[in-house]
Design a protein that fits this description.
Blueprint (H helix, E strand, L loop, with lengths): L12 H4 L10 H5 L12 H6 L5 E3 L9 E3 L3 E3 L5 H11 L1 H4 L9 E9 L3 E10 L2 E15 L2 E10 L15 H15 L4 E3 L12 E11 L5 E11 L6 E9 L5 E6 L11 H4 L5 H4 L6 E9 L5 E8 L5 E2 L1 E2 L14 E5 L28 H5 L2 H19 L11 E9 L2 E2 L3 E3 L4 E4 L12 H14 L8 H23 L10 E2 L9 H4 L2 E2 L6 H4 L5 H4 L7 H14 L2 H14 L7 H14 L4 H13 L15 E4 L9 E4 L2 E6 L9 E6 L7 E2 L7 E7 L3 E8 L2 E8 L6 E6 L2 E8 L2 E7 L6 E7 L5 E3 L7 E8 L2 E9 L5 E9 L4 E4 L9 E7 L4 E6 L9 E5 L7 E4 L9 E6 L4 E5 L13 E5 L8 E2 L7 E6 L5 E5 L6 E5 L7
Parallel strand pairs: 6-9, 17-18, 18-21
Antiparallel strand pairs: 1-2, 2-7, 3-7, 4-5, 5-6, 6-7, 8-41, 9-10, 10-11, 11-12, 13-14, 14-15, 16-17, 18-19, 20-21, 22-23, 24-51, 25-26, 26-27, 27-28, 29-30, 30-31, 31-32, 33-34, 34-35, 35-36, 37-38, 38-39, 39-40, 41-42, 42-43, 43-44, 45-46, 46-47, 47-48, 49-50, 50-51
Helix pairs in contact: 10-11, 11-12, 12-16, 16-17, 16-19, 17-18, 18-19
Length: 954
């Protein structure tokens, strides 16, 4: 009798998990499953072209060097800095290998001037006029005594791009539909939640906005449409802003990550919302008082000066014009703090809430309400951050151009405290406190952190995913803490100097309260977590203290002011959007050399990175306790299937540039995997197998088509198709089940195709309803279902369809307690599912089993008490049940990542860890006996791995 690997949920883990972070310039791209490759050897011509006194670091996957230092090569002193930079690159073509240096394909995105005549030009790479993601090259120069000279370059310029066309085949309308479907799937989660009792059936609402056509720099290039999708997370009401890249040929969503840190607001401007905030208003009436001295009390009890503004109506506003020059009172920076109390966080991300106004005290002496709201701390600290960047680096505001500084204070989430803060690309947003936490502006290092995100956006613009995102967080932490110490007069010798967010708690001391500790000693070998974008955008918080710890060590061992200058120079003049830890190390060392560090000081800088394991090739040292079936699979948002000793999985090439094709192999690891699908330029995804045949979905510009082909070879048969966005597929025998987003109703629904008869049927023939998380075996389909009762109230359950008889059976679940249901798994003699009966616990869920007719119910793992898990997904054979646990991310540690447990079908003996690997364990698929396969992120790549039995305790 064949045992079966019963399938991952149709649209379950694919909604929450992607692929893991890679290294170097692949940091973001590998997070999205695009590429993760080792650094190549130096090109002979590149090394030879550099002057002997300079240092040249070769690029990865490009002929252009990633870093050149020690130059002094004169260029034209007249004209713009950007023209001089392009002229240098053109004149040194043998070194840089940049074929087109015209302004059309090498566009200046910013030029900054610093003390000593230093000029930094950032150039955006384009290919035939189309933007290349992460293709940014920096040219550093000095201009003195009427002469201009190039001192170095750095960044990523991709030389191997070669596309036949830069016009997408997929229409903008189709791309938006596919992107919205992908985000809906991403945030649908592995548990189908019921609305509150008595409420009608709801659905996720997302909106897509088309951006630029963009080339992703894999191999010869991947042409995409960039779509920004916004809305509200249906699980917790938090704001959603996803940057989605849709393959221009097939329409498959090849990359998706959160844009909440770098997305520029396109909504109403503060001047339109609150006219008094605009500087022009102050110039129209002499009665306006631009700077009124006030005072307030911070959360810590300190009384501080507060700069206010008094408008023509006599009202005081929390606007600070004091940073302007005395001879230009109506031009320059402005710091404005807005009253966002009671406003939803989702309505403040990337937009301005309608009707919002600045805080407006009755007098210059701010009372207790302004302390408790967090307004005093936010406004005062924003001024301190401005002063820090101006006094230390001569930087004029966050954008370096005297741009306005906006803070929204007191947002909530679903009417409840929002214990968080964020930078959305144009402003800081601070959550309202409650319970154990104060409003998140209460700690100066949090304000410094969020405002530094703004500085990062306007300099290196490190993409907020993977290693580049972890560096973004690390630099925000570093400067946030440096600003906190300076503003509050704390010494670097203070034992709590490295703590971040230590002043936010109402009832806990600094060490118990702190969100992160820059002295935690995190290293790549011990602490790096290979993680998907699922919960932490590729480990931006999980891995940040590895890099920030190195920077903080350097600050402790050098003069702090010199350390700050080094880090700022590295950020402003060396780093580019896709840099990872290794490039970050190189940038800091190069900046230190440029600023005149002695040999002893350089030794300290290098030692700091060495101590945290940030050395070239560090990723290769990460180990596992699993057998690897396919290494560096390089796929995104598509799982795989297994059964009867076979597996089927999508696969790209090493650099991730090739559209995905489907391969099949033996779960034992014997033999080599074989190509099953066409390698036709479309994306072949969601592969599944019953051991005899392989099924998959082919994404094409005209629709999504379903294929079936024998494992041993034979005719590839198209058995159906759909015009909507598909999120996953399950297959067994004659039945193929797929889940799609119904574009008419907006609900997630599932259909099955009988490949023998060609018949296609809905699992629930009602457009107002949800069917998802399906599994199939031996003619029976199990799925989670939500449907409206006669009065419209939402009902929730797990249902089994016997396709031979047409009979449907609801499983024995107490609907009065049911809060959510999850993944189903069908075996030879029954069905398993995830069940959550308690909305008040920490998120635990049970795994249950019953016969197909609903009899003989068994609890495999309980929801409460000993052996309870945060069950998220389930897959089963006749011999073992495999449960993916996804704990709530109350903090960012390895323990909060998805891990796989295994239990006996009757639940006796409890559950054991399948593997002790560090990092994400996703898309589990049961095979014969106790064998289970999954996609593992421990090494920093996406590897298809397996274990034949559980590891036990870890």
């Amino acid at each position: 009798m064949r045992t079966s690997a019963r399938r991952r949920a149709v649209g379950s883990q694919g909604r929450r998990t992607g692929v893991v972070v890679g290294q170097g310039i692949a940091a973001l791209l590998a997070t999205a499953g695009l590429m993760a490759t080792a650094m190549p050897a130096a090109h002979a011509d590149t090394a030879a072209a550099a002057p002997a006194a300079s240092g040249t670091t070769p690029g990865s996957e490009t002929d252009t060097p990633s870093l050149v230092t020690g130059l002094h090569e004169e260029v034209a002193a007249t004209g713009s800095a950007a023209d001089a930079a392009r002229g240098h690159l053109k004149a040194k073509k043998g070194r840089y290998h940049i074929a087109d240096t015209s302004a059309k394909d090498l566009t200046a995105v910013g030029t900054t001037t610093e003390k000593g005549g230093k000029e930094t030009v950032r150039l955006q790479q384009k290919y035939k006029g189309v933007k290349v993601l992460g293709g940014q090259y920096v040219v550093r120069m000095t201009k003195k005594g009427g002469k201009r000279a190039v001192t170095g370059t750095s960044g990523n310029y991709f030389t191997k791009l070669k596309l036949d066309t830069v016009t997408p085949k997929v229409s903008e309308e189709t791309a938006i539909e596919r992107a919205v479907g992908a985000v809906s799937a991403q945030f649908g989660g592995g548990i189908l939640r019921a609305p509150a009792k008595g409420e009608k059936l709801g659905k996720a609402e997302f909106k897509g906005t088309a951006g630029d056509v963009t080339i992703l720099p894999q191999g010869t290039g991947v042409l995409t449409r960039h779509i920004t999708v916004t809305g509200t997370n249906p699980a917790d009401g938090s704001p959603v802003q996803q940057e989605v890249y849709i393959d221009g040929h097939s329409g498959f969503p090849v990359m998706q990550y959160s844009g909440i840190q770098t997305f520029g607001a396109t909504g109403t401007t503060p001047g339109a919302v609150d006219g008094a905030a605009a500087p022009a208003d102050a110039s129209t009436d002499a009665a306006d008082q631009l700077v009124v001295k006030g005072s307030g009390v911070r959360y810590n009890g300190q009384k501080v000066d507060i700069n206010l503004y008094k408008d023509t109506t006599g009202a005081y506003q929390m606007i600070d014009y004091s940073k302007r020059a005395a001879d230009s009172p109506y031009q320059g920076p402005m710091i404005a703090t807005y009253d966002a109390r009671g406003r939803e966080a989702s309505g403040a991300s990337g937009v301005w809430p309608s009707g919002i106004k600045t805080f407006r005290p009755a007098s210059p002496e701010l009372g207790e309400d302004y302390t408790n709201s967090g307004a005093v701390d936010a406004h005062w600290a924003a001024g301190k951050v401005y002063d820090y960047y101006k006094n230390h680096f001569d930087r004029n505001s966050l954008d370096g151009k005297d741009g306005y500084i906006y803070s929204l204070v007191g947002v909530v989430n679903g009417g409840q405290p929002y214990n968080n803060a964020f930078w959305d690309g144009s402003k800081m947003v601070y959550g309202q406190g409650g319970g154990d936490y104060r409003t998140f502006s209460a700690d100066t290092d949090v304000v410094g952190h969020e405002m530094t995100h703004g500085v990062v956006t306007h300099t290196a613009n490190l993409v907020y995913a993977g290693q580049s995102g972890a560096m973004n967080e690390a630099i925000a932490d570093y400067f946030g803490n440096a600003i906190d110490l300076e503003a509050n007069g704390v010494s670097m010798d203070d034992p709590d100097a490295g703590l971040l967010g230590e002043d936010l708690c109402t009832n806990a001391g600094p060490r118990e309260c702190a969100l992160r500790d820059l002295n935690d000693g995190a290293t790549t070998s011990k602490n790096f977590i290979g993680v998907t974008y699922r919960g932490d955008n590729g480990g931006v918080h999980l891995n940040s203290t590895i890099f920030s710890g190195a920077l903080w060590d350097m600050r402790q061992d050098l003069d702090p002011e010199f350390a700050d200058q080094i880090v700022y120079r590295a950020l402003s003049a060396y780093m580019t959007p896709l840099d990872g830890f290794t490039e970050g190390r190189a940038a800091v060392i190069a900046a230190a050399e440029e600023l005149g560090a002695t040999k002893a000081q350089l030794k300290i800088v290098k030692r700091s990175f060495d101590a945290h394991g940030i050395v070239p090739g560090w990723e290769k040292a990460l180990g596992v306790d699993t057998d690897t079936l396919i290494a560096k699979d390089n796929i995104y948002s598509t799982g795989f299937g297994a059964g009867a000793g076979k597996y089927a999985v999508s696969r790209s090439n090493e650099d991730g540039s090739e559209p995905y094709s489907v391969w099949a192999g033996n779960t034992s690891g014997k033999g080599q995997p074989q190509l099953i699908s066409p390698n036709n330029g479309n994306f072949n995804v969601y592969a599944d197998t019953d051991g005899k045949n392989v099924a998959w979905a082919e994404y094409a510009s005209t629709g999504v088509y379903f294929h079936v082909r024998p494992v041993k070879g034979g005719m590839d048969k198209i058995v159906g198709g759909v015009g909507a966005n598909v999120s996953a597929l399950a297959f067994d025998g004659d039945l193929l089940v797929y889940t799609y987003m119904n574009p008419q109703s907006g609900y997630t629904q599932s259909r099955y195709i009988n490949i023998k008869t060609g018949e296609t049927k809905e699992l629930y023939n009602n457009p107002i309803g949800v069917t998802t998380l399906a599994s199939v075996h031996d003619g029976k389909i199990a799925y989670a279902k939500m449907w409206p009762a006669s009065d419209g109230t939402a009902m929730l359950g797990v249902e089994v369809l016997d396709t031979a008889t047409g009979k449907k059976t609801l499983m024995p679940i107490d609907s009065t307690k049911l809060y959510g249901v999850g993944q189903t798994a069908v075996t030879d003699d029954g069905v398993y599912w995830v069940e959550d009966d308690d909305a008040t616990d920490a998120g635990q869920a049970a795994v249950r089993r019953a016969n197909f007719d609903g009899t003989n119910p068994v609890t495999v793992t309980p929801e409460h008490g000993a052996g309870a898990l945060f069950a998220y997904s389930v897959t089963a054979s006749d011999d073992a049940v495999n449960i993916t646990e996804l704990p709530p991310a109350t903090d960012w540690t390895n323990d909060t990542l998805p891990k796989i447990y295994q239990a006996a079908p009757d639940g006796k003996g409890g559950a054991q860890r399948v593997s002790c690997n560090r990092g994400d364990q996703v898309y589990a698929a049961a095979d014969e006996g106790q064998r289970v396969l999954w996609l593992d992120g421990t090494t920093g790549y996406t590897n298809l791995v397996k274990r034949d039995r559980p590891a036990g305790k870890c």
